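new request in #modeling-help
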Amino acid sequence: MSLFTDFYELTMCASYFDNQQFEPATFDLFIRRLPPNRGYLLFAGLEQVLQYLSSVRFTQEHLAYLKTQGFNQPFLDYLRDFKFTGDVWAAPEGTVAFPCEPLIRVTAPIIEAQLVETFLLNTVNLQTMIATKASHVVNAARGKTVIEFGLRREHGIDAGMKVARSSYIAGCQGTSNVLAGLAYGIPVFGTMAHSFIMSYPEEIDAFRAFAKTFPNKSTLLIDTYDDLAGAEKAATVAKELEKAGHKLGGVRLDSGDLEAISKKVRKLLDAKGLEYVKIFASGDLDEFKIAELLKNCAEIDAFGVGTKMGTSADKPYVDVIYKLCETMTAEGVFSPIMKLSEGKVTLPGRKQVYRFKDAEGNYTKDMIALADEKVNAEPLLAKVMENGKVTYDFPSLMEIREAAAENLSKLPSKYKKPKGSQEYPVERSQNLKNMIARLEKTLRNGQA
Amino acid sequence: MSLFTDFYELTMCASYFDNQQFEPATFDLFIRRLPPNRGYLLFAGLEQVLQYLSSVRFTQEHLAYLKTQGFNQPFLDYLRDFKFTGDVWAAPEGTVAFPCEPLIRVTAPIIEAQLVETFLLNTVNLQTMIATKASHVVNAARGKTVIEFGLRREHGIDAGMKVARSSYIAGCQGTSNVLAGLAYGIPVFGTMAHSFIMSYPEEIDAFRAFAKTFPNKSTLLIDTYDDLAGAEKAATVAKELEKAGHKLGGVRLDSGDLEAISKKVRKLLDAKGLEYVKIFASGDLDEFKIAELLKNCAEIDAFGVGTKMGTSADKPYVDVIYKLCETMTAEGVFSPIMKLSEGKVTLPGRKQVYRFKDAEGNYTKDMIALADEKVNAEPLLAKVMENGKVTYDFPSLMEIREAAAENLSKLPSKYKKPKGSQEYPVERSQNLKNMIARLEKTLRNGQA
């Protein structure tokens, strides 16, 4: 993956090398602002970041290609032996986070720290964007099952895998992606498509054929021709299954007015003693539609959520950035750095994030402080890599999922609404404020 | 990639197998509607589709996993020997296409045709979405250079690669993604980040260091502290380069009012005899911002377009679907199939798309007809795979890119506007209309 990078990372590194700039520097990875309709961020992607940092190397093929792009031999020789040797501090996956809080902090020789930027941003962008979106969908479902069903419209193979992972972290119960089931141990779910129904002359033949193969776990798609007629036929098959000692799992609705249809279907099924048959809904769902359906008491037991969650359709990226915050001076001491470009101000210095909690453990506010300050609250960043070696016991995906649920339970609900959430307070320590004021003054005098 | 699929593809196939359904069927892959702000679709992704179809297999590990998911041994034995053996007709990549036109048509034993659905949709969704979006961006740039710069916020590794590929097909001049340069031979571009500037005590030191390494192709980022002060320093470095017999490539603006600043920077550079120094702009660009900048005569020579193009941010998916359109009856003849679900009607039968042109070769209208109809116009679909073997000479990426440019030049500009495009006429042949009417009648009588 070493060439999975923006070209400018390599040109900058070539110039650092050429100018013998090997001093360490610190970069913060953080998200500048919340996407609309989100009250918080759910951080994900650290495992893949650390795997990358501990394994990134340049092959002969890479070096031969870079030679064709005009890089000189001394730099290529440097890349031949390239390893990431820095220290990394990070928040654990499943951490509830807010804008401008460093999520990953990298301290390494500046060439190394710069070279890894693109991969880190790409990874955290995808997984944190999806975990955040999926978490808001799961909240909207108020304890009802949500399954991630978006594989066909997620952005390629890696997205298909990482969306399944991140939405599982966020509380989805499973995915339709079978490869994610194999790779991550995530429960996989699926029913049938309209094509299956249509491939049989009669709808009920399709139901019977499917129920024959899966007599105890069939979910029958009933909207291919007419929902209620489909529900009648599903009920007939359910009764046939009962006689053979089996039970129909559920029916699925995938179109139309899900609220009205689900109520009619529930009534129809209940009238036949099929209270145990679940109603599964899919089709263009997101957190807003789910909230609306449940507010109106739609008779839906589980939701299959696809494209809108799997592409984070209302905002298909987070404003994640990776910014230099300190460099080492010629005297060998770290010195804080800040940027002034319009609307793109950064926070200087090596920092830590502290979380304040009330007596019940509920989050009350965060504070971004300098790393060496003493603050009487829980620090979010811990050391996860030292001299290029992982110093972190990777939690299992299930442990990350449980941590995320626990963390989210501690965030008061006023901060969790997809629309009109209150802004969670994130303060800056007095020392950090003083540093910012001092640097702003210097910059405005010195460079303008 | 065999398990990179929705679970329901496998459950349906298991049931087809269990019920000994091996007859061939035909599926159409098409896009139901245009995304907003697009006048047409630019089809991409066929090469990866055919690579997948000719190589999809189940490994022992896959089969062992599927066994844990409740599939029975006879079906697993079937999968052990699974190969795709069908026929595929498709439009070439770089084809200008419109809603409901089949782009890929698969005829194969129904288990095979069903099993491959998810991968085909995922691949065509990503690449066609991006090629379409990027094509509208390139149109807006009116011949000026557009470079794809979105890697850091594209959705994972595969998206990073395929966005570079599809946007190059659409007419971008290159990408920042170095691995895409290696894998696809796409030209790679890059300048420098703010962090590079900030790592030096003085901005001009950073410019000099970079120019030392790349004396003839440096593009200096001038907005870290103050654009015009940055431009002054870049001009100083350009003059130093001139003395050493070199030439500064350009300057880059990445924030602020690009129109106003570009005009001031151009004036400043020209006043110093630096007319040859290009102005490169980036920062939150899309087709609308580029059109506005050029309308107002911004002095910009090239655009770096990132997140909004690389995630297709205003609509991060296309409504691509894969629908059964014919099955084989017990008598061994193909019979057309149609679906009636609300708002999701499909077109029955095996079809071809014909494109009508005027005397200059400009597109005038399309017609969706039955595959065996004679229509005096250019058919868009050609056979690309027979009995599971590719029967198609893959064009090179450059050839696809040239074909796309040629095709787009034949689409009248009234259909190409991102806002307020006229709707391109896509008709249905009389035979197709008659078939639809007949099936609708049967369905409404038979199933409701």
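bot summary: Chain A touches chain B through 102 residues (CB under 8 Å).
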